[in-house]
Structures are given as structure tokens and as C-alpha cells.
Amino acid sequence: MQINNFSAGPSKIPESIIKEISKDLIDYNKLGYSVLELSHRSDEFSNIVNKTKDHLIELLGIPNNFEILLLQGGATFQNTFIPANNPEINNDVAFLLSGTWGIKTYNDFNHYFNSTVPSVSLQNQSIDEIVYEINNLKENYLCLTSNETIEGLQIREFNKFKNKKLIIDMSSDICSYKFDWDNIAYVYAGAQKNLGIPGVTVCIFEKKFFKDNNLTSYLNAQNHIEKNSAFNTPPTFSIYVMLKVLEWIHETGGIEKIEKNSKKKAKYLYDFLDDNNQKLILNVSKEYRSYSNIVFDFKNQKLTKLFLEESISKGFIGLNGHRNVGGIRVSNYNSIELRMIEEFIHHLKVFLSNN
Ligand SMILES: Cc1ncc(COP(=O)(O)O)c(C=O)c1O
Predict the structure, then answer these.
(1) First-to-last CA distance in the chain?
(2) What domains lie within the chain, and their CATH numbers?
(3) What does pTM read for this prediction?
């Protein structure tokens, strides 16, 4: 049976990449040993790190006043790493809260600074209302989560917050669209959605963002910067997989092509869901609908469980909404093919006509 994996992360990896990885598991680069055995101090591994950074720079158009780190600890560690290494932002940062992950970041920042950081919650306001409210805050920095993976809510108009320096958790939509770096201070993303497998987190920040400090070894950003992300033993295999994914994005036609595909797939599914709104509920307002995670539910909630069961029996996996919100979540990451969305729509159509 063909499996269509729509999981929110760890998520589908393109088949061609899995094939390449399988070869490298046996013999990497004709060295006669596995990529799993590569020393993090070898030239081969330094090449992997440098090529990974070069691809990120090329694909995302990262300006040369930015630094890139590949760290462990997931996006969650960044919620401590950033405030620890930049205590100066303590009284100068505000939050735009649009969902679960942003709230977690906010709570960690508050805990770290032992104070209450100002925040604006996205409720029923339009992006222009939110922008107005935020641009009137005195704080220079703004933290936000570009794509709320659980709720399926996305904000991409970073330039609208022109008088703020943005710190963005991009874990579930990095490398799915291009953006301008003019008002970006820091972007971070766990790899397990659009960039491969868990274990490594990409951090891209203005070189002047971190100052010297006395923090202990792993927590201290300067150590990672000085040692080119190999201060201690890095997650070699996760970084290698990220390089494979970035090479695949490059060969696919770059971020512009990825973005076009992503919009096309998302529109196709949202149009179908809207056409069936007598039976389906979509809670996120159109303006904020995510291209990465498409979240909906059945009006008759008894159907949710039945649909998930039937989906699994037909090879559609990873569709259950996050345990906090329930419902259905179709993750439309870069690796998801149009064919998969078409087959999913067909499957849902048949289910709706039978129920
Ligand atoms: C937007 C977002 N931020 C943060 C996280 C937490 O990431 P990690 O588990 O890598 O710490 C996730 C996990 O799915 C996420 O989707």
C-alpha cells in the first residue's frame, strides 16, 4: 500500500533523498565507511557544515552581516539561549502571540528575565490592526512565531513591522518562502519539518546580536560561533541530512519554486474545504491561513475519529490534529507532492459523500 505521510514533524522526506542517504549509510563519498561514522573533526564533516551554510545563504538570500549556527536542543532551547545570551533585550522586547508555540516562547522569556514581557495576542484583528498596535509599542524587538504549527496560522508580512527588529521562530515554515532581512534580528527553526530530521536547529542572526558574556560552555553563543558549530560533538547525521534537503531544494528550483508549489497545493485543499463548509469547520480566518499546516474539523465531531481511522487504513497517516486542539491537520511541507494532496482530497470527498 502506498503511504502518504502528512505528519507535522518529524515529517516526510523526499524519496530521492532517502535513496541517496541509504547509499551514504553504507559508503559515504567513496571513503569506504558510513556517513554515520564521520568524525566531527574530519575535513569531510567541515565540508558538510560549510556547504549547509552556503546553501542557506544562497537559498534564503542571507546578507553577510548575519551569522549561522547549527545547534542542538530544538527550537525549545532557543527560548533560553536567546535571552541568556542577550540580556540587553530584557526591557526592549515584546511578543506577538498567535498560538501555542509563541506562548511557550513567551513563558520561557518571562521566566528567564523574571519579569513580564509585554505582549499582544492575535484575536480577531486584521493584520493591519495588529501592525498598528505593535508599531505603537515602545520596545524595539518583537518575537513572533511565523507559523503556528498546531493552530495552522501563519504570518508572513514581516516588513509591515518596520520599526521593530524581529526574532522569529520559523520552525514550521523556514525555506518555504523568501523574505526580506531588513528588519530581522534572529530567525531559528528546528529541522524536523522543512529541513530534514530532528537533532539540529538552524539559528540565523545579526552578527552584532550577541555580545561577550560569562555564560557556561554550551549556553555561550560565542563558543559556537568561534568553533563553527562544532564546539562540542554536533549532531553530525542531522546536519548531513539537512544538507541533502537543501541540495534538493536547490535542484527543485529554489525557494521561489517551492513557494509557488506550496501556495498551489494549499489553495487547492482550502478551496475544497471551503466548498464543503456545510460539513467542515475551518477556524483560522482567511488572512492567516497557513500554507504549511492546514487545520480543519468535521461539524459532526463523531466523524473525526472515523475519518482518521479510515485514513490510516488507506495509507494516509499523520493527519490527527495536535492533542490540544483535536481535529484534522494536513501538513503541507516542502516534501509533500501535489499528487498527495490530490489523493487526499479524493479520499475526503468519498468520505464526505458516504457520511
Ligand atoms: C513552531 C514551533 N516552534 C517550536 C517547536 C518546538 O520544537 P522542538 O521540539 O524542536 O523544540 C515546534 C515543534 O513542533 C514548532 O512547531
Answers:
(1) 24
(2) 15-252 (3.40.640.10), 255-354 (3.90.1150.10)
(3) 0.98
